[in-house]
């Protein structure tokens, strides 16, 4: 063969092999595990470390996603696109970052994550659902599942495929600033509401045995958080120490993870807290042995925000140690989220130095890729702009309104037996509406709304309770609104009755820790001034039970509305009798803070209102009858579920 023909042959072989080169991992007809292994086998250390790195949107400019093979980007609370807080700006942001990721050698899509903890709460105009503390009172897994479906659609409307929700904490002490993110103090209630995962991700055909499941691109990957014991810290101090034996940890705090995993939850976030003095972010026993092996969780484990930094005190004091101990404990993706060079260099050096072995890295990357393949991210990495219409849709708002109706708990109705105040008359001549929370959308939404801490005023679109009342009463009814009524005001009005709406200001995380739990923001003088002068309904807008016992005698009626979100009309639907109350307490209402912690099933249990309590008005739309809380309470008595739970545990 001449030299020329030899070259031609080589060129021909090259051409044929390039045309027929087959990248198995890109083939959607292949099995997820086969795709993962094929892709993993092609990756360099730098590409693997990149997959394990989650950075904040704010540091994601300048093609860092591309240059460092970043596996995930997040928005922290209130971190919105520079171009504006609109569906289009979000889609553009996510697509820009995704195109960065897709332009890398292997084209592995990044996964964008966000806290959608009561609807798509960072986004202007999204439907804001009640916070979990209210949803717990509905005891309605189907409702919560439908909220999951709606939330997934709104999140997809902004091009985002991943949410850091649900929070499945069992809050055992309302002094904790995150108690409103928890459905209940009862593990059983929390567990039943993990059905939200089925709404967010879709319903696996059968038990997935720990395998991450996301049905299609109308769904999102979910994240059960914060593993484990976040709701059990001493005095409810955020990010603190949960002192409890292993059995207690499992029975009270871990049980909802069994169900979340069985329902196919894709990711689990680690808690800032410690268990008996040991930081969860460095706890190999709980993360690797229990979560990954015993509970057979096959999705990825993500850290909390700067969670590994906080392994040491002060935070970040020995970041190398933080990386080593967290990755070796079994964490797969680290929410760095800002100082990514330090994390990437540190992790790379630890692997090269043999302090973290390749097997561990491969486990982490396998899990991250498994989620990405299982959810179809390789096939549909970009925003589907046809979803924009779902953001804040009428359908979702009416679902949120239903959720508000069902989460309200009636705790008192009338000063004397047989003389209820509720349902209120829609045709009264004159009604006073008073209090700091009556006409304030931001306050009724609470923390994690538009911004991390939430804010007062018209922070997004929705209906305040005052607007809802105005919309509910007859055209001839006169409404007098006064946020901060002084003594004598109510009396001078000659009104038929007053509706007083008071409560807590918005807060999130540590900012919400509170040891006295009194009604703030002039709530107490407002109640006293109004209710001392005219028949009154008090509606409390709060993330938890507060001290109310001293003021209860002066109130004619009392309703806990929790943090209802953007649809205030759910409140007017019920107080004017179009619907009856169905909510029952998912938390014990204490008399005084020195009783805390006090939870259902405790030996010493002397509440103001027990767990499971909730009155009805007996309006035509209700099933009738007054309270039957004893029956419900008995059903939820721990003896009924602790035994099956322990049996379930032993089977693992
Ligand atoms: C919270 C998490 C949240 C994360 C990202 C942390 O401070 O503890 O619940 O998912 O921030 O915003
Ligand atoms: C972010 C939150 C995050 C928190 C952690 C804030 O700056 O906005 O999302 O949870 O920091 O401390």
From TrEMBL:
Cited InterPro entries: Cellulose_Degrad_GH3, GH, Glyco_hydro_3_C, Glyco_hydro_3_C_sf, Glyco_hydro_3_N, Glyco_hydro_3_N_sf
Alphabetical keyword list: Glycosidase, Hydrolase, Signal
Domain Glycoside hydrolase family 3 C-terminal: 408-616
Pfam families referenced in this protein's UniProt entry, alphabetically: Glyco_hydro_3 (PF00933), Glyco_hydro_3_C (PF01915)
EC code(s) of this entry: 3.2.1.21
GO biological process: glucan catabolic process
Keyword Signal: yes
Reactions this protein catalyses: Hydrolysis of terminal, non-reducing beta-D-glucosyl residues with release of beta-D-glucose
Signal peptide: 1-21
Family: Belongs to the glycosyl hydrolase 3 family.
Name listed for the protein in its UniProt record: beta-glucosidase
């Amino acid at each position: 063969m001449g030299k020329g023909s030899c070259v031609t042959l080589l060129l021909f072989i090259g051409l044929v092999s390039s045309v027929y080169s087959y990248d198995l991992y890109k083939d959607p007809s292949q099995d997820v595990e086969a795709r993962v292994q094929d892709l993993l086998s092609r990756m360099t250390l730098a590409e693997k470390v990149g997959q394990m790195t989650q950075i904040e949107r704010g540091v994601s400019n300048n093609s860092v996603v591309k240059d460092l093979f970043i596996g995930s980007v997040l928005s922290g609370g209130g971190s919105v696109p520079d171009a504006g807080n609109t569906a289009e700006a979000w889609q553009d942001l996510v697509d820009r970052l995704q195109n960065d990721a897709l332009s890398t050698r292997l084209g592995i899509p990044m996964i964008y994550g966000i806290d959608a903890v009561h609807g798509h709460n960072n986004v202007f105009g999204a439907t804001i659902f009640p916070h979990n503390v209210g949803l717990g009172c509905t005891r309605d897994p189907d409702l919560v599942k439908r909220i999951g479906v709606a939330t997934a659609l709104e999140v997809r409307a902004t091009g985002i495929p991943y949410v850091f929700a649900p929070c499945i904490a069992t809050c055992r002490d309302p002094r904790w600033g995150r108690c409103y993110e928890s459905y209940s103090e009862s593990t059983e209630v929390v567990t039943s509401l993990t059905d939200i995962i089925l709404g967010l991700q879709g319903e696996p055909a059968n038990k997935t045995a720990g395998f991450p499941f996301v049905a299609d691109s109308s769904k999102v990957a979910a994240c059960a958080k914060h593993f484990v014991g976040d709701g059990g810290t001493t005095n409810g101090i955020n990010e603190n120490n949960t002192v409890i034996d292993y059995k207690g940890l499992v029975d009270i705090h871990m049980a909802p993870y069994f169900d979340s995993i069985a329902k196919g939850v894709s990711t689990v976030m680690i808690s800032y807290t410690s268990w008996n003095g040991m930081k969860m972010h460095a706890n190999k026993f709980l993360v690797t042995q229990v979560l990954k092996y015993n509970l057979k969780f096959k999705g990825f484990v993500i850290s909390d925000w700067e969670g590994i930094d906080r392994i040491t005190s002060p935070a970040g004091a020995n970041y190398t140690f933080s990386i080593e101990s967290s990755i070796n404990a079994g964490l797969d993706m680290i929410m760095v989220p800002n100082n990514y060079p330090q994390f990437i260099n540190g992790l790379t050096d630890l692997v090269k130095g043999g302090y973290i072995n390749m097997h561990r890295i491969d486990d982490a990357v396998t899990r991250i890729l498994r989620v990405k393949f299982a959810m179809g991210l390789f096939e549909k990495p970009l925003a589907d702009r046809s979803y924009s219409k779902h953001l804040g849709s009428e359908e979702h708002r009416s679902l949120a309104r239903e959720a508000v109706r069902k989460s309200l708990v009636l705790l008192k109705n009338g000063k004397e037996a047989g003389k209820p105040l509720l349902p209120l008359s829609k045709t009264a001549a004159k009604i006073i509406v008073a209090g700091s929370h009556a006409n304030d959308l931001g306050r009724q939404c609470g923390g994690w709304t538009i911004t991390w801490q939430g804010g007062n005023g018209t922070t997004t679109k929705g209906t305040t309770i005052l607007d809802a009342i105005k919309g509910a009463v007859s055209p001839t009814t006169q409404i007098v609104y006064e946020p901060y009524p002084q003594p004598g005001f109510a009396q001078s009005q000659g009104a038929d009755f007053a509706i007083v709406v008071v409560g807590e200001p918005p807060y999130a995380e540590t900012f919400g820790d509170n040891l006295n739990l009194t009604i703030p923001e002039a709530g107490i003088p407002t109640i006293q001034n109004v209710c001392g002068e005219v028949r009154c309904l008090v509606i409390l807008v709060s993330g938890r039970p507060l001290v109310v016992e001293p003021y209860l005698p002066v109130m004619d009626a009392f309703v806990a509305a929790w943090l209802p979100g953007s649809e205030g009309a759910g409140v007017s639907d019920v107080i004017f009798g179009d619907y009856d109350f169905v909510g029952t307490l998912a938390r014990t209402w204490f008399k005084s803070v020195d009783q805390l912690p006090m939870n259902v099933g405790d030996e010493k249990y002397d509440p103001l209102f027990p767990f499971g309590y909730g009155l009805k008005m007996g309006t035509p739309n209700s099933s009738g009858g007054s309270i039957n809380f004893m029956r419900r309470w008995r059903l939820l008595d721990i003896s009924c579920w602790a035994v099956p739970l322990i049996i379930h545990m032993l089977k693992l």
